[in-house]
Structure formats: structure tokens, C-alpha cells
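Researcher: I'm preparing a figure for a lab meeting and need a structural model of a single chain. I don't have an experimental structure, so a prediction will have to do for now. The sequence is pasted below. Please return the structure as C-alpha cells so I can convert it later.
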Amino acid sequence: MKNFYSICFILFALSACSTSSTGRKQMSLYSNAELNQMGITSFDQMKKEIPISKDKATNDFVICVADAITANVSQSAHQGEWEVVVFDSAQVNAFALPGGKIGVYTGILNVTENQDQLAAIIGHEVGHVIEHHSNERLSANKVSNVGMAVAAIALGVSDVDNKGLWVAGLGIGIQYGVIMPYSRSHESEADIVGQDLMARSGFAPQASVQLWKNMSKLSKDSPPEFMSTHPSNETRINQLNEHLTVSQPYYLAERNTGNTPQCVKPKVIPAPPTEKAKK
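Model: Understood. Here is the structure written out cell by cell.
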């Protein structure tokens, strides 16, 4: 067991060759070119499989918010234009991928009450791209797989009883002890980075707090935080509230210069097509 954890620690330490904007050590085993291609390929596949909204007002609203956000993203995160697609789906979801891709599901527009709350969502998702979280997650999975293989080999030549149970237990330990906390740190970091980004883009950062209050009403039966890849809604709300002392001055500076986006949310978001209609 000591050897196993030592090997995992060494692998993580050797791979932690970069630092996020919040000062957190990062593990990156893939090149930007590889990640960009993965993002582009995944996005193209989604566009083939998920209906795309044709409602002009909905598209104009989402693209208006996304353009304001991406205008303030460093070229080091993505060079060139960002592609924004509104997917006609009841899912309460949105995402951003390496390669400059943003997807927003119409379902989430029923939770975001205005441009500022949508900016909090898009800012958060773009924050994942800015901080190279996809690279970290893929790298963490690769390292954990290597660690599990090493542990299985080590147990195979030892005198430990119930080797299968030990390996299974190690898998659970890695999931709850490494991968999930790693993902939770990504979510918290994206919350903070996204709040700063929306504020620098002229959107009121306090809207991110209200957004997660809205989201909490939809996830009353969510698992305990230690068993989830995301922080609890209460944790997110507290962290975002505390960070307002940093992000609010960015917003006030933008407002004083007249940089206040005017993205109008449609009064009615068209319902996504039913499964029968899709066929």
C-alpha cells in the first residue's frame, strides 16, 4: 500500500508542471493541439446528434452574452473566433470545450433569469477552458489507471488475501480520494474565474450567487458533497459571495466606462422537440 501511494504521488508530482491562475499546481500530459482537436471532434459529433435551435431570438440572446464573455478571454486559452451553438434540448446544461467551442442547451435558459445569470454560466464553462481542466482530468484518469495497474501487479505477487477486493477498494479510494476532489477543485476554480470574467465583461457578478440559488432548487436530492464531482450548492454560493469583494470592482470599472452589454432574453423560450418529433 505504501509503495502504491508513493508511486501515485511521484507520478502526480512529476506531472505537475504548470500552475493555474489561482496558484494551484496542475498536471498536464496532453498538448494544446491534442486537446483542441478532441474538443472540435466532440463538438462536431454533438451537432450531428442533438437538434440545434433555429429560434432567432434565443440564438441572438445566447450569442450576445457569449461574445461579450469571449472578447475578454486571453489568446493563450484560444486563438481565433469562438463557435457558439444553442442546442434544442430540455437539459439544464451548458459547456465549453478546447478549440473555442461553446454549447448552451435551451433547458438552462429556463433557470437563468437574465443576461447576467447566463453570463455566470458561460463564464464558468469558459473558465474550465482557460484553466485547462480538460487536460487535467484526462491526465488524472491516465495516472490513476497506471496506479491501479501497478497496484494490481504488486498485489499479484504478494501474499495478500482477497486480492480482488483490495484492487476494487483501491479503485473506490482513487475515485473518492483523488478524482472527485480533483473535479470539485476544478468546479470551484471555474466558479471564481468565471465570476471575474463575467465582471470584466460588464455583467453583474452577484448574479452568479442568485444563479446557484436557482440551481439549488433543482437539485434537492443531490448526493453528499464527498460523493459528488461538484461542490454542494451551499459551498458554491458561499465561495461566490466571498469572492464578490474581488469581482465587484471589476464590474464597477466596466460600468463606469459604459461597457454594459444589452442582451435581451426572449420572453418565451421555445420548447425543445419531443422524441417523437425528432424521429
